[in-house]
């Protein structure tokens, strides 16, 4: 009577779950890969911006780097700050107008400070930042460092 | 491989308990029907007749107890539903299809071979031969009930469950019921509910009384296990998964073609969005054209998909046709995949149209291969998300309000990718870095299709 | 049958719940651990070299984030178990955990925003960690909304379970966002190689996490019992209704 071959529902369910697991695994692999792809990143490195060259002119981008030691210059009424953003590939001069965050420039004692600037690269090679964000790493230290 | 011996019962319910909300509707119902046997469930309103029939059809999952159809198969197994004819208290009919088209769709879902002859025979038997090519929305309640009977009995089932088959039939129709059953489902075990004991007698059914969720005076709980007198025939094979999905997509496309409930309105909606934003931001403020165009494109794709997605399952739910799909011998995941395809097609169509509108109205070069690809792939991704969520809100209050809240958060990656690709196409951002965005769209589509395939069957059955 | 497991809240008086020895012990533990965590966060832990006092937000921000992740994990477990077993208690677990998870995520977002204003100079940035956390918050708010909009309890539990499983996909994405993508937000201090903190801070953080865990358990129990009491009330009403009908 019942000529249709019947597969029990169990293996079908696990087949679907296998499909789901495969999809999720592929998704994780893909998401890790996107971290290296230019279009999807939250910020660029100094090296990437220098390599983009004219492609980057007058586009709103974010750049991450270390504030070069001793490069901070405050001019005029204190509203214009010039400094160099640095990574392994070289330096990018930055001009920022506005009030800097409280923690900016706290790079004493050979400790480098990472910042992210948001703005536009000009053909002159200078980066005009409209916002300046201090990036703080995962390290914490007590205030009183014992004198070495 | 399993064959049903003629002496094993066609329908068995063993100590069924069903709870709906706070109410214990069925409180230990046991019954058994032999092949070819007929039984009438009578009882006052609210006794649980409808609930019992829905539990037997696998539309409700019992809290306790067991249902077996055709030997030993649970109705949750799609193959067990291959021999099941079910008519709920509302015939599962599509008003924008003709009587014949409704039957043809059911035949494809049931895997009925020689469908055309069988359909013609059923139409003649229930007395609708003259109205076969009329749209069902012009049918009276009684005609709809006749068509519903034809649907339930179409595949020569061996288990038939009918919820008040005599409802809204004229007296001639009620008198005709025994003949319809004899002609279309001669071998079937028939369990039906009714208020009218004369109907039960006319059909030669033994009577079981259901009161407050319990059977009171069923004389014999064990069935009369005499083999059916009619020779058995080969059961139609349930359709392959792909064929069933295709049948549902074709049905939905035809319904939309006839009813024009979604696509024309959505086209007007996107055109309006383009015009309004154009006037607000460019004509009035002189903003950057490219940014405005990209914003309008993706907000209209998202909102169009949300509007259409809200109705995706709700329309079938409200018309009672969702039950028809769920009792068909098809894995319910197929329903999700069919609805996903329909929504993706509609959204992609509307999105591509918006590319044309924006290119013309705002004079931007949005109509490019990369943006068309992005719209199509994003339509798939959004639809994979929305088709699942649409199935979750069918019974929710104010589902139009709820849907955007559910839809937009998981759709954010899709919008990011869409905006990323379009900005690249318009050279607002450096072009040539779009691979990652396309990949993201593909990944969202695949992940949600997998989630929907696994989870929809759980959302579908209570 | 639900009468057998009468909830503690059904006892008279609002202090009734405390008469249960397990509950009383749990409350005592909560009071103790929270008190200790507060003392350690504000007095025991030293000020930070760069951030001075504001870094103390760490002791709220990190535990609430971790507990939010755990809570959403519990939502998924409860949802899967509900779909497999069909027992309402699993759905109550998912509901209670989702509500607390949303509460803890809100706390994480608010403390993070205040902290960001002080360290980064901005209240908010569309950085991967912040953005994904906000999306996760929205997903679970919509989970609670879905529950609120469905009247039929069976449908509500089933649909919510499906969404509770879908939603948990967001948790690993939020967690790994700082590892997978370039982010403004620091990687976890405790586990990442470049990070670290002096022992006093680490101990304080761990005590805070413990206190928040106890807080989570207390809230979870309370919320589940409340939901059970509401369900019992509903079925008692229904039974009364049935009895009235039978006698009529």
Question: What brief labels describe this structure?
Answer:
heterotrimer, B: 462 residues, alpha/beta, Rossmann fold, 2 domains, six-stranded mixed beta sheet, three-stranded antiparallel beta sheet, disordered N terminus, C: 248 residues, mainly alpha, Four Helix Bundle (Hemerythrin (Met), subunit A), globular
Description:
- The complex is a heterotrimer of chains A (about 150), B (about 450) and C (about 250).
- Chain A has helices at about 10-35, 45-50, and strands spanning about 45, 60-65, 75, 80-85, 90-95, 115-120, 125-135.
- Chain A is of the alpha+beta class.
- Chain A has a 5-stranded mixed beta barrel with strand order 2-4-5-7-6.
- The model of chain A is unreliable at about 1-10 (pLDDT under 50).
- Chain B contains 14 helices and 9 strands.
- Chain B has helices at about 50-55, 100-110, 115-125, 140-155, 170-185, 195-200, 240-260, 265-285, 290-320, 320-325, 335-360, 370-390, 400-425, 435-460; strands at about 10-20, 25-35, 40, 65-70, 85, 160-165, 190-195, 205-210, 215.
- Chain B has a 6-stranded mixed sheet with strand order 5-6-7-3-8-9, with helices on both faces. A 3-stranded antiparallel sheet of chain B has the order 2-1-4, with helices on one face.
- Chain C has about 250 residues and is an all-alpha fold.
- Chain C has one domain (about 20-185, about 200-240): Four Helix Bundle (Hemerythrin (Met), subunit A).
- In chain C, about 75% of the residues lie in helices and about 0% in strands.
- Chain C has helices spanning about 20-45, 60-85, 90-120, 130-150, 155-165, 170-180, 200-245.
- The interface between A and B is large, with 31 and 41 residues.
């Amino acid at each position: 009577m019942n000529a249709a071959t019947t597969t029990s529902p169990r293996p079908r369910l696990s087949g679907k779950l296998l499909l789901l697991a495969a999809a999720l695994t592929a998704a994780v692999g893909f998401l890790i890969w996107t971290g290296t792809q230019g279009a999807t990143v939250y910020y660029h490195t100094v090296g990437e911006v220098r390599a983009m060259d004219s492609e980057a002119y007058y586009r709103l981008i974010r750049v991450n780097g270390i504030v070069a030691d001793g490069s901070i210059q405050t001019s005029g009424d204190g509203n214009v700050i010039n400094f160099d953003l640095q990574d392994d590939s070289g330096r990018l001069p930055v001009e920022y107008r506005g009030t800097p965050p409280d923690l900016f420039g706290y790079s004493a004692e050979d400790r480098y400070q990472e910042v992210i600037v948001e703005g536009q690269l000009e053909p002159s090679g200078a980066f005009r930042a409209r916002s300046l964000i201090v990036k703080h790493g995962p390290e914490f230290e007590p205030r009183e460092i014992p004198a070495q | 491989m399993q064959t049903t011996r003629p002496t094993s019962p066609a329908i068995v319910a063993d100590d069924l308990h069903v709870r709906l909300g706070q109410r214990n509707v069925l409180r230990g119902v046991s019954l058994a029907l032999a092949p070819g046997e007929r039984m009438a469930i009578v009882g006052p309103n609210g006794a649980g007749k409808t609930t019992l029939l829905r539990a037997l059809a696998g539309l409700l999952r019992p809290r306790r107890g067991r249902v077996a159809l055709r030997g030993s198969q649970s109705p949750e197994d799609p193959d067990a539903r291959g021999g099941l004819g079910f008519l709920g208290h509302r015939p599962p009919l599509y008003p924008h299809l003709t009587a014949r088209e409704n039957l043809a769709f059911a035949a494809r879902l049931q895997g009925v071979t020689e469908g055309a002859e069988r359909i013609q025979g059923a139409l003649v038997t229930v007395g609708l031969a003259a109205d076969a090519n009329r749209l069902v929305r012009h049918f009276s309640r009684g005609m709809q009930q006749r068509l519903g009977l034809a649907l339930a009995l179409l595949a020569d089932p061996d288990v038939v469950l009918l919820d008040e088959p005599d409802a809204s039939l004229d007296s001639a129709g009620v008198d005709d019921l025994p003949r319809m059953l004899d002609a279309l489902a001669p071998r079937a075990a028939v369990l039906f509910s009714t208020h009218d004991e004369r109907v039960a007698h006319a059909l030669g059914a033994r009577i079981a009384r259901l009161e407050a969720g319990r059977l009171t005076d069923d004389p014999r709980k064990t069935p009369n296990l005499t083999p059916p007198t009619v020779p058995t025939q080969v059961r139609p094979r349930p359709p392959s998964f792909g064929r069933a999905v295709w049948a549902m997509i074709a049905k939905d496309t035809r319904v939309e073609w006839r009813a024009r409930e979604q696509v024309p309105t959505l086209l007007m909606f996107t055109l309006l969005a383009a015009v309004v934003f154009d006037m607000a931001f460019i004509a009035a403020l002189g903003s950057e054209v490219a940014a405005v165009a990209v914003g309008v494109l993706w907000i209209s794709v998202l909102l169009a998909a949300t509007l259409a997605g809200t109705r995706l399952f709700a329309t079938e739910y409200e018309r009672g046709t969702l039950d028809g799909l769920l009792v068909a011998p098809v894995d319910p995941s197929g329903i999700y995949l069919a609805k996903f395809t329909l929504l993706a097609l509609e959204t992609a169509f509307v999105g591509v149209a918006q590319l044309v509108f924006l290119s013309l109205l705002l004079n931007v070069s949005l109509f490019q291969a990369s943006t068309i690809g992005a719209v199509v792939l994003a339509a798939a991704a959004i639809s994979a998300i929305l088709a699942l969520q649409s199935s979750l809100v069918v019974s929710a209050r104010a589902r139009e309000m709820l849907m955007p809240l559910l839809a937009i958060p998981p759709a954010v990656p899709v919008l990011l990718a869409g905006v990323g690709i379009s900005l690249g196409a318009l050279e607002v951002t450096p072009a040539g870095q779009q691979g990652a965005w396309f990949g993201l769209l593909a990944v969202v589509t695949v992940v949600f299709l997998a989630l929907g395939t696994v989870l929809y069957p759980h959302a579908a059955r209570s | 049958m639900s009468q057998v497991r009468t909830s503690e809240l059904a006892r008279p008086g609002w202090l009734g719940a405390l008469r249960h020895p397990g509950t009383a012990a749990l409350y005592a533990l909560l009071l103790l651990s929270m008190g200790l965590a507060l003392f350690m966060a504000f007095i025991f832990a030293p000020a930070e070299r760069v951030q001075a006092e504001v870094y103390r937000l760490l002791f709220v921000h990190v535990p609430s984030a971790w507990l939010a992740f755990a809570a959403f994990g519990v939502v998924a477990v409860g949802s899967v178990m509900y779909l497999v077993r069909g027992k309402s208690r699993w759905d109550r677990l998912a509901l209670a955990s989702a509500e607390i998870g949303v509460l803890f995520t809100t706390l994480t977002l608010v403390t993070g925003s205040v902290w960001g204003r002080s360290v980064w100079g901005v209240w908010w940035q569309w950085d991967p960690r912040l953005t994904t956390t906000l999306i996760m918050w929205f997903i679970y708010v919509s989970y609670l909304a879905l529950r609120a909009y469905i009247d039929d309890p069976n449908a509500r539990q089933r649909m919510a379970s499906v969404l509770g499983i879908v939603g948990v996909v967001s948790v690993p994405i939020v967690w790994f966002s700082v590892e997978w993508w370039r982010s403004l937000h620091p990687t976890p201090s405790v586990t990442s190689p470049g990070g670290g903190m002096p022992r006093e801070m680490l101990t304080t953080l761990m005590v805070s996490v413990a206190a928040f865990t106890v807080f989570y358990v207390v809230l979870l129990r309370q919320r589940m019992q409340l939901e059970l009491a509401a369900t019992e009330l509903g079925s008692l009403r229904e039974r009364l209704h049935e009895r009235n009908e039978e006698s009529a």
